[in-house]
Specification:
GO terms for molecular function: ATP binding; ATP hydrolysis activity. It is found in: Cell membrane. One of its GO terms (cellular component) is plasma membrane. By secondary structure, the chain is an alpha/beta fold. It folds into 2 domains: 2-237, Rossmann fold (3-Layer(aba) Sandwich); 255-338 and 422-440 and 452-507, P-loop containing nucleotide triphosphate hydrolases (Rossmann fold, 3-Layer(aba) Sandwich), CATH 3.40.50. It is 33% helix and 27% strand. It contains 18 helices and 24 strands. Strands 6-9-10-3-11-12 form a 6-stranded mixed β-sheet, with helices on both faces. The chain has a 6-stranded mixed β-sheet with strand order 18-21-22-15-23-24, with helices on both faces. A 4-stranded antiparallel β-sheet has the order 2-1-4-5, with helices on one face. Helix 14 runs parallel beside helix 15. The radius of gyration is 25 Å and the shape is globular. The model is unreliable at 504-508 (pLDDT under 50).
């Protein structure tokens, strides 16, 4: 039975038609996955359904009735709840306080009934199998449990339709499996689930049907039993995509990067790195895995000279760094693909040509006697725009006017073209579509084959396992384990990411 129906939904922003007459039918108790490249219109459609945006055209029908959704409160009244990719919890509140926030039980019509809130939260968590301590402070519980709190918030308000936006992006494999059990249980109780994701393996394992969006339009709605990753990727991109990463055995050389006992503080002044020591060799990719917030960002910033060290040493090509600043690091031969391409990787008002020489603007051939050589800058830009397929292929377009994928290509072109011996690649495919991700993988593997030492930091465990030769897991700022990527399993990595030591280490 059709429970939720979208009819001809359209939404435009200046210069962009995000949703173009989208029509979907979702049955009661169904898990419908919504997939598509970045910019395909998924988030806009979900924001319309949850009341954050209003459509320019179209209708939403719920349980056979025309719905009027002009705000999130309207959506909640219609029993629609959305769990956002970035949680909206109050860290210093307890689990129970977060669950009832905005709809608190009271005594004498004015005083918060805290015991009542705890009781309701406990009953709700037990009913739906989302075990979490109602009295725990949110900032003290793991990310997976925080997500449970977000789901409980929507269920507390009586949600019959749940929108889950990239729900596994910060979860370990074990936490993902627990989430999937919850989704199946909610579905069996008649809850309608919209599962928004870019991870095709996951949607194939959890959804009943999959709707594919491309350029704001529905390109197909398929049953899980009748499709596969390759067909879904083709619908998403509009062409065949190579999904399997094929890499030759590593030709491992000398140690090019070594850290000894690195310690660094995070932005809150707390110790984020607690004595990290590692070695990175020529011709290999060393993957750094871990749940977000376990020291990955601080490690990258320490290695690239962007964060002060409290203790420890960094050695590049057997030379110890002395100044620990970005200029010295780059001069010693370290390239950096930052996790935030707009904040750290590009000067958005600058042209593509100027962004392609950042960090080398004072060097030959781009500068002579303190003056920029515009002819050399333009010639170099044209070569790299062609080589890295940057679109539009115009050196004078401002970086802010490029898509995310093409902004990333500019950074790759700048960092890889000069063949640095070491590359720090932090979240290199974050926010990229399938096609752009494929391109990034090709370039990193090409650099590896040419002898570049690559430190890959990613929250995407599949990416880490596919590209890496060795994998190190960070947990609370410490190295919890090191594995050969060819022998590593998701289960073992997931346990390490949760802080569980390897069996052989425990016995030792």
């Amino acid at each position: 039975m059709v429970y939720l129906e979208l009819k001809g939904i359209s939404k435009s922003f200046p210069g962009v038609k995000a949703n173009d007459h989208i029509s979907l039918e979702i049955e009661k108790g169904e898990v419908l996955a919504v997939v598509g490249e970045k910019g395909a219109g998924k988030t806009t459609l979900m924001n319309i359904l949850s009341g954050f945006y209003q459509p320019d055209e179209g209708e939403i029908w719920i349980d056979g009735r025309l719905a009027s959704i002009h705000s999130p409160s309207d959506a909640i009244a219609l029993k629609i709840g959305m769990v956002h990719q970035h949680f909206t919890l109050v860290p210093v509140f307890t689990v129970a306080e977060n669950i009832v926030l905005g709809a608190e039980p009271t005594r004498f019509k004015a005083v918060l009934d805290f015991k009542g809130a705890v009781k309701k939260a406990r009953e709700l968590s037990q009913r739906f199998g989302l075990n979490v301590d109602p009295t725990a402070v949110v900032e003290s519980i793991p990310v997976g449990q925080q997500q449970r709190v977000e789901i409980l918030k929507t269920l507390y308000r009586g949600a019959e339709t749940l929108i889950l936006d990239e729900p596994t992006s910060v979860l370990t494999p074990q936490e993902t499996q627990e989430l999937f059990k919850t989704i199946k249980m909610l579905s069996s109780e008649g809850k309608t689930i919209l599962f928004v994701s870019h991870k095709l393996k996951e949607v194939l394992s959890i959804a009943d049907r999959i709707a594919v969006l491309r350029n704001g339009k529905v390109r197909g709605v398929v049953k899980v039993k009748e499709t596969n990753e390759r067909e879904l990727a083709k619908l998403m991109v509009g062409r065949d995509v190579v999904l399997e990463v094929k890499k030759s055995p590593p030709l491992v050389g000398e140690v090019l990067l070594e850290t000894k006992g690195l310690k660094a503080l995070n932005s809150k002044g707390l110790l984020a790195l607690k004595g990290v020591s590692l070695q990175l060799r020529a011709g290999e990719i060393l993957g750094i895995a871990g749940v977000e917030g376990n020291g990955q960002t601080e490690l990258v910033e320490a290695l690239t000279g962007l964060r002060k060290l409290e203790a420890g040493e960094i050695w590049i090509k057997r030379n110890r760094l002395k100044k620990y600043n970005p200029g010295e690091v780059r001069q010693k031969g370290l390239g950096h693909i930052p996790e935030d391409r707009q904040k750290r990787g590009l000067v958005l008002p600058f042209t593509v040509a100027y962004n392609l020489i950042l960090g080398r603007q004072t060097q030959t051939p781009f500068s002579r006697r303190g003056w920029l050589s515009f002819a050399q800058i333009d010639t170099s830009a044209e070569e790299r725009i062609s080589l890295f397929d940057i679109r539009p292929p115009r050196k004078n377009v401002e970086a802010k006017n490029l898509s995310g994928g093409n902004q990333q290509k500019v950074i790759l072109a700048r960092e890889l073209s000069f063949a640095p011996p070491i590359i720090i690649a932090a979240q290199p495919t974050r926010g990229l579509d399938v096609g752009a991700t494929e391109f990034v993988y090709e370039r990193l593997l090409k650099a590896r084959a040419e002898g570049t030492a690559i430190l890959l930091v990613s929250l995407d465990l599949e990416e880490i396992m596919s590209l890496s030769d060795r994998i190190i897991v960070l947990y609370e700022g410490e190295i919890r384990g090191e594995l050969d990527a060819s022998q590593a399993t998701e289960e073992e990595l997931g346990l390490l990411m949760l802080g569980v030591k390897r069996t052989d280490e425990v016995k030792a």
